[in-house]
Amino acid sequence: MVATSPLATPDWDYAPAPESADVVSIAPRYGLFIGGEFVPPAAGEYFATLNPATEQPLAEVAQAGEPDVDRAVAAARAAYGGPWGATPGRDRAKYLYRVARVIQERAREFAVLESLDNGKPIRESRDVDIPLAAAHFFYYAGWADKLAHAGFGPDPRPLGVAGQVIPWNFPLLMAAWKLAPALAAGNTCVLKPAETTPLTALLLAEVIQEAGLPPGTVNILTGDGATGRALVAHPGVDKVAFTGSTEVGKEIQRALAGTGTRLTLELGGKAANVVFDDAPLDQAVEGIVNGIFFNQGHVCCAGSRLLVQESVADTVLDRLKRRLGTLRLGDPLDKNTDIGAINSRQQLDKITELSAAGEQEGAERWSPACALPDRGYWFPPTVFSGVSQAHRIAQEEIFGPVLSVLTFRTPEEAVAKANNTPYGLSAGIWTEKGSRIFWMAQRLRAGVIWANTYNRFDPASPFGGYQESGFGREGGRHGLAGYLDA
Ligand code: NAD
Ligand code: MN
User: Fold this and answer.
1) In which band, very low, low, confident or very high, does the pLDDT at 263 lie, cut at 50, 70 and 90?
2) 387 and 253 within one domain
3) pTM to 2 decimal places
4) What is the mean pLDDT of residues 122-131?
5) Pairing outcome for strands 46-51 and 161-165
6) Catalytic residue among 19, 114, 195, 266
7) Are residues 163 and 307 in the same domain?
8) Which residues approach ligand 1 with their CB closer than 6 A?
9) How many Cα atoms are found within 13 Å in the side-chain-facing hemisphere of 13?
C-alpha cells in the first residue's frame, strides 16, 4: 500500500520488495521451555498467536498455568544451585557470547519471524531489533568475568532466580534486555513473553539449547496476564523484572510490597520532543518522525508530545505533513515499508478511542491520504495540532502512531510543559545551542534525554524512568545493579 499526499504525490512508485517468509519454519504448536526441553503445559491449554497484518493464526502456543510456573521456577532454582551457579564468570561470558553469535547467524530468520508475529516493518526488525538483541548479549558477555570491577564491591553476588515479564512491542529485544544482564550476573531466569508475540522468544529457546546452556538456566513460559501474575508472585522468585503498562506495574508493586523480592519496573511514557526555533528544522522533522512513527508508535519512550517553539510552529508542521505524505504503510515484510500493522485488535481499539477523544476535545486531526489494507490491524500516521495540556491526548499514553503538537514561547515554558506529566521516561531537545541543551537536560524530569536525535539505543547506555515510568535501569553497567546483591 502506498501513502500519498496532495503535497507530495510521487509520479512513480516503488516496486514491491517482499522478504520471503520461507526462511522461517513455524511449528503448528509449541510447548513450554522448561529445564532445557520443550514440554506440554500441565493443563493442556493452548492459544493462537496471529499475524496482525493478515489476522491469520501463525501457531498455537501453550498457556502456562500455576503448576507450570512451579515447575519452571524449580528448574531455575536447581540450575542456580547446580551447574549455572557453579559456572564461573569467564565461562558464563562464553555462553552469552555464543548466544549472541547464533542470533547473528540466524538474524534473518529472527527478523522475519518478529515481523510476522508483531507486525513491525522488516526494515526495523532486521536493522534494529535483532542486531540490538545480539549486541546486548555481546555487551553483557563482556561484563560476566568483570563483576568485581563494576563498582558493586569486590565480590558482588547474584540474586538467584529472576522472574521476567515482557511486552509485545520489541519482543526479542526485551527478552535480551532481561536475560543478558541477569545471566551475566550469575542468576537463572524464567521469562514470560507477551501473549501476542511469543514466537521469537521460543526461537531464542532453541538458540539457548544450541548454545549449550545448562538445562534450567533459562526457562520460557508462554501465557497471558494470569501466567505473568503467577510468576511474579511465586515465592521461589528472588527478583522480578517487568516491562509493560503502568497499571500492571502498580499491581505488581502492590503484590510484592513487604516480600523482600527485588523489583525493577519499566513502564509507560509520554515524552516531550522539544524543538527550538534555532534547531536545524529538516533534521528535527526526521527526528519527530522517528520519535513517534518508529514501530507504529508502540514505543514506551516515543516522542508522542511535540513541543515546538511558536515562531517556527507553522513551518515545522508544514514540513512534517509533507514528510508524512511520503511514508509507506503496508505489508510488514516489504523492505520499503515504513509503517507496519498495529500489534493487536485491542491496541487498535485503544488508539482509535483516544484519537476520537482528541477530536471531541477540540484538537485538529490530520492524516496523509493513506489507503489501509482490507485485512489486518492498521492505523494511519496521525497528527493533532492545537492540543492543550489538559487534553487526554496530551496526558495519556496512546502507544500508537499519533502525535500531539503543542507550542511554547520560552525555554521555561517548554520545561514546564514537558514536565507536566505523571511519567518521566524520555525527552528530546532540538537546538543549535549546546548551553541550552545542558540547561534543558538539567530541568527535564526524564531518565533518557536525546539531543538533536531521538530513539537511539545502545547496550552500553542505561535506560529507565522516573515517577510512573518505573524505576531501575536496563543497559550499561547500571543494568547489572538490578541483578546483583551489592
Ligand atoms: P500489559 O502491561 O498488560 O502487558 C505486558 C506484559 O505483562 C505481558 O506479558 C502480559 O501478559 C503481562 N501481564 C499482564 N497482566 C499481568 C499481571 N497482572 N501480572 C504480571 N504480568 C502481567 O500491557 P498491554 O496490555 O500489552 O499494553 C497496555 C498498555 O501498556 C499499552 O497500551 C501501553 O500504553 C503500555 N505498554 C508499555 C510498554 C513499555 O514498553 N513500557 C510495553 C507494552 C505496553
Ligand atoms: Mn502475534
Assistant:
1) very high
2) no
3) 0.96
4) 98
5) unpaired
6) 266
7) no
8) 165-169, 192, 194-195, 224-225, 228-229, 232, 243-245, 248, 251-252, 266-268, 300, 347, 350, 397, 399
9) 8
Domain region containing 476: 21-266+466-485
**Distance (Å, whole) CA 280 – CA 430:** 8
- Average pLDDT, whole number, for the chain? 96
Do residue 244 and residue 195 come from a single domain? Answer: yes
pLDDT tens readout for residues 373-428:
999 999 999 999 999 999 999 999 999 999 999 999 999 999 999 999 999 999 99
- What one-character-per-residue DSSP string does 1-68 give? --B--SS---SS-PPP-BPPGGG----SEE-EEETTEEE--TT--EEEEEETTTTEEEEEEE---HHH
pLDDT(318) > 90: yes
Active site residue 266: yes
Neighbours of ion ligand 2 (CB under 5 A): 49-50, 117, 196
**300 an active-site residue?**
yes
State the Cα angle at 242 between 237 and 248, rounded to 5°: 110
Residue 5 covered by a domain: no
The Cα-based distances of 164 to 92, 130, 191, 211, 351 in angstroms read 19, 19, 5, 21, 27
Pairing label, strands 32-34, 470-471: unpaired
Contact 404, 361 (CB under 8 A): no
**What is the number of alpha carbons within 13 Å of residue 43 lying toward its C-beta?**
14
Q: Are strands 364-366 and 382-385 parallel, antiparallel or unpaired?
A: antiparallel
Closest CA to 96 of 276, 195, 218, 197: 218
Q: Domain check: are 318 and 254 in the same one?
A: no
Q: What is the mean pLDDT of residues 83-88?
A: 98
